[in-house]
What we know:
CATH topology of the largest domain in chain A: BirA Bifunctional Protein, domain 2
Radius of gyration of chain A: 25 Å
Distance between the termini of chain A: 23 Å
CATH superfamily of the largest domain in chain A: Bira Bifunctional Protein, Domain 2
Shape of chain A: elongated
Number of domains of chain A: 2
Number of strands of chain A: 23
Structural class of chain A: alpha+beta
Largest sheet of chain A: 5 strands, mixed, barrel
Oligomer: homodimer
Number of helices of chain A: 10
Helix content of chain A: 25-40%
Amino acid sequence: MKQSFLFTKTRRDAPKDEVSQNAKLLIRAGFIHKEMAGVYSYLPLGFRVLNKIIGIIREEINAIGGQELFLSALQDKAVWEKTGRWDERAVDSWFKTELKGGAETGLAFTHEEPLTALMRDHISSYKDLPKYPYQFQVKFRNELRARSGIIRGREFLMKDLYSFSKNEAEHMPFYEQVKKAYHAIFKRIGIGEKTVLTFASGGSFSKYSHEFQTICAAGEDAIHLCEKCRIAVNDEIITEQTACPQCGNAQFAREKAVEVGNIFTLGTRFSDALGLQYRDETGKEMSVFMGSYGIGPGRTMGVAVELFSDEKGIVWPESIAPFSVHLVSLAGAGKSKAGKDADALYEKLQKAGIETLYDDRDARAGEKFADADLIGIPFRAVISEKTPAGKVEIKKRTSDTVRIVSVNEFLKTFHLP
Amino acid sequence: MKQSFLFTKTRRDAPKDEVSQNAKLLIRAGFIHKEMAGVYSYLPLGFRVLNKIIGIIREEINAIGGQELFLSALQDKAVWEKTGRWDERAVDSWFKTELKGGAETGLAFTHEEPLTALMRDHISSYKDLPKYPYQFQVKFRNELRARSGIIRGREFLMKDLYSFSKNEAEHMPFYEQVKKAYHAIFKRIGIGEKTVLTFASGGSFSKYSHEFQTICAAGEDAIHLCEKCRIAVNDEIITEQTACPQCGNAQFAREKAVEVGNIFTLGTRFSDALGLQYRDETGKEMSVFMGSYGIGPGRTMGVAVELFSDEKGIVWPESIAPFSVHLVSLAGAGKSKAGKDADALYEKLQKAGIETLYDDRDARAGEKFADADLIGIPFRAVISEKTPAGKVEIKKRTSDTVRIVSVNEFLKTFHLP
């Protein structure tokens, strides 16, 4: 994409009321726009990053048998009353509103209830199980405070996967598969090293649930890390958990962290309340055994910014960067030799399918370099009047070293002939 | 996808309170689920169709210079007060709700206001124009009645494109380009022949706006078709429009229709109210000249079902069908010769990238054929114990003729060697 085409501009200052580092940088670099506290819009660069993250999650969830759907935001009160979660004493983060005619409705903060209800149309026999529907859908949560940028919003995208199994014996292997898939997802996104499986309180059907917590100074959660086996225990259960549930070690290190994912054994809580049953091999009616599994793609993006930035701006991991290459032409306006060389390299990169942001603007070199650092694309490639013919000046965002290499050598970086 | 994997099942009857033909068929075939009147969830088959439509729209809008973003649903009251559209006397379809702390917020029924406001951060000079941001985002409209299935929902997906231009002279050619793109979109979706450009009332900045109306018995709109030049005039302006605005013909035929798209010259209404200005070549501050352009992908899907169905079920146009081939194995359970042949053909189709729903279920032939007709995939391919080796029994959904052809000949249908 040519930068002259992109409508967003970078800016020196973030909005005055913005306190979080992730939102400050993302706003300044033109990735997001703040609508109100806790509500952000995704501009073209931010939308590209979000879609990279979604793409990685989708691949890994499809690989373990997920099938994608798209549930509604508006919710039928009657369905939620059956589990007791319509009541604001049970759930205090509802946004509720009214249909014309007066009936109350609410905006989904999660989707266990409507999905369990709809599965009654599709599950009746043990032959129909297991099934693993999931979606990427906006959730609404009426948070009292929203000061963590896109890490904790009042409106945010969530990948929510649900498992419907015959019983715990069928459920548990899938639960373990999701654990592995989540590790793979966070590794691919680039935050794997900082993300630890964290034991959290379970429900009536399991001793523990599990969170994926990314160790990060901006985190609102506290976790207790067992440095021996790299798992953690969350703050809620640490008092009753004197030793690491995995290795027995009693030494924990307290860390701030952000919960980027969680997996939970729901058991038959929702299927009992909503009447989701199946006939087993002997003809007996049984409640479906459920689990739920969430990841916040926007939150993950925010955490990546918190982890990977420096005083100049964002430093995107390659897998989720909005573009792979930031090609900067210092040729100025007009049809100079360097301008033509930069155009030609852009064409070459486009043809090869290397996602490139091409800074073709008529602006000063200093402004272009500052923008490139702020936006944080992994490779910067510069062509100026001084660049020798057939060469390009490349620099990684993570390094200060500029290397002059041949265009062909540069293309080999991306495994191109 | 194997049908045994797909979690949805077909059903004989639609919900009793469902009156629209599109929702009845889509629910019975397992494409959508009714949450409440005017609120539908998209199940895996329906989500596939929706994404096909989105893909076509995205390609055509990108081709005319659109750049995709994703705005928030929750809206800042202050922004809407500036245009007078927060007031429910001006807009009676708001869903409003409250933030913790008491501030009012609403759910976007469109996005002119927030987008105009955010563009102030990115447009300051004539050099920044024109720009064409767009999105696919859920809109919320508190309709009093919602009886048209996914054709008119209280919550629905919309593709909304906005143009920001220097002036009317720059705006008009783009407006004409969108017209062409819309014709191309509806043609590719398969509803082009029934979709006519319809003159509608304009605003302060143009005599007309334009709707794209699909002639369809289920339509809630009335249009007046000039059969000479295949354009129409909508019901609002027909009394003042005695002759066809395009060819002068005074003969109109009244038709029921569904508005699947619209294009509108907004002029400076929103930029004036919200202070979106640019400096022109002489340094003078000017208001940005705007347009807005909508298409409802879900509505378009509903219209396609209304147009293309018969007593047996849906008859999807090839471009938006959830799958290209419905491969039906009549081999029964176990590893019969026919079962192995069907498995092998499925593998071949998968490898070739032909999207195939493979009915591998242990069910009666009659049930499988009825499901195939209801779901409406363009090609049905059957392999039974009676099918000669290396052959397959194919039938188009639009025809009653079954042909026995070699597998290789069948693959040629999809331009495969």
